[in-house]
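Hi support team,

I submitted a single chain yesterday and got back a structure, but I'm not sure I'm reading the token output correctly. Could someone confirm the output below corresponds to the sequence I sent? I've pasted both exactly as they appear in my results page.

Thanks,
R.
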Amino acid sequence: MNQVTSGADVADRSLPFTRGSHWVDTVDRVGNDALMAPERRIVLDNVHNFRDLGGYPTTDGRTIRWRVLFRADGLSAMSPADLEVMRELGLRTVIDLRSNKEIDERGCFPHEDVPVSYHHLSVIDTTWSEDTERVLPDDEADWLTWAYEQMLDRGAPRFADALRVLAEPEVYPAVFHCAAGKDRTGLLSALVLALLGVSDDDIVADYALTAEAMLRMREWIRVNRPEGASLFDEVPSAYLSADPEAMRRTLARLTEEHGSIRQYVASIGVEAEIVEAIRDSLLV
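Hi R., thanks for writing in. Yes, this is the structure output for that exact sequence:
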């Protein structure tokens, strides 16, 4: 039977989240206790990067609530057991950051099985693999930093819309996701965590957790969809990379250009009241 740890239970970290006989695993010991908390990764059959954003400390001495906000990769191919986990989490809201083409090809969250409020907020019109005029990556961190700058500039209205959704108390528990849970999801996660007062070091470390998720995804495709496994060998490595230096540079650029992440989101139309409402919902 699937087991979900509730927000009230997370203080007892001797009881990691499990799925059947599978223990939650975390990345190699690269961060603090909050980063490595056994509650962080939620193990699913067909989703490889579903993570809780709870537990991180903030600079004002508060903590993000557990089991309220999640980040993830694609949610269209969940198994019956995965759907049961969604029910046990009490999921109310899904924010889908993928393009129209991705949804047409792969489907979306099965809200007919788990009723949720579904918001499609496409950050980019075309993915990197679809863009025939893309700049081919050389150095992974340099290229990802450039790509994230493009996403934040062109996708600013969608990031702003996502923050407005998260300002409504009734949307929680909520999850936002893209295809791999790495880039578009990573940027929205960074914005949310920064607005909550999480340090840059913890934001970067949370982003870096995706590196192991990409390995899990690759292995799952090799076993379950071997016809698609060769695609991993054909795309530039930067497309699959979660280089922490790229996120560190991105946060630094936003702070240098705008003064703070809060001022960046203000520049894209997110009012201070929206930020405070998100903080009220997510911090204890």
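A quick pointer for reading it: Confidence is low (pLDDT under 50) at residues 1-31. Let us know if anything else looks off.

Best,
Support desk
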